[in-house]
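Hi R.,

Here's the chain you asked about this morning:
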Amino acid sequence: MGLRLEAADLSAFLTREFPEVADDFEVLSAGDELAMRLKVGPQHLRPGGTVSGPSMFALADVAMYLAILSRIGPVKLAVTTNISMDFMRKPEAGRDLIGTARILKLGRVLAVGDVLIRSAGSEGVVARAGLTYSIPPGRAA
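And the predicted structure, written out as tokens:
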């Protein structure tokens, strides 16, 4: 099926290319789905002690980006063209967030997928994101 990047490869790519955010995330697994942890810290909280929407957005965006790269290789210029988020419940206090990304369609120029976000150790979905990415010509795969 071609090139597949593993969790360690994706973590190294994130650290090398996006060091400003890499410390916030941990790639847990890569395969048919990609699981990623947002290490929730004070910078991710909003008043009321819950994780902010922008932090959940970042988790969804980075998880889908890396899920796509796990299939096509380290293409820096794949970019988000659309994202839609549904916030379903308040994240549990004091817990990291886990985003599970799956690719629904991987085409030549567009990739479509979704990310489910949960509080670590919980089955309840906190948020759901639907994303579309543009893949530049000459991708690695």
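The radius of gyration is 14 Å.

Let me know if you need anything else.
M.
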